[in-house]
Amino acid sequence: MLNAFLLPFCVLPGPLSAGSIVYLGMMFGAFFWGGLSDKVGRKQCLLMSMSVNGFFAFLSSFVQGYSMFLLCRMVSGFGIGGAVPIVFSYFAEVLAREKRGEHLSWLCMFWMIGGIYASAMAWAIIPHY
């Protein structure tokens, strides 16, 4: 997420910028991985989607062209999109019924705290970049 704040300073933004292309991949990934996890299994699909995310995020740091970079980031977003629906349903499956709402709220809260942390780190890094 930090790179979404830093990338506009490195490359020219366009209609499909490096920050927004990830969300396009996430949109399609959520539909694909969410449906597949009901058929194959949540743990299996979570591992596969995170592997896709990790591999293409790593690969995106080595590509030379901007179009290949955008493609890698979109496929990485496709993997991230699998984590969102799978993690919430997988987490809700293993929780006791009386604590399910509280713990899902904690999960959502720490997801947002991570976004705020990434924003704060970008705010600290950008003036020195």
UniProtKB/TrEMBL annotation:
InterPro entries: MFS (IPR011701), MFS_dom (IPR020846), MFS_trans_sf (IPR036259), Sugar_transporter_CS (IPR005829). It is found in: Membrane. The chain crosses the membrane at residues 6-33, 45-62, 68-92, 104-126. It holds the Pfam family MFS_1. Keywords: Membrane, Transmembrane, Transmembrane helix, Transport. Residues 1-129 form the Major facilitator superfamily (MFS) profile domain. PANTHER family: SYNAPTIC VESICLE GLYCOPROTEIN 2 (PTHR23511), SYNAPTIC VESICLE GLYCOPROTEIN 2C (PTHR23511:SF6). It is a multi-pass membrane protein. The keyword Transferase does not apply. Its main location: membrane. This is Synaptic vesicle glycoprotein 2C.
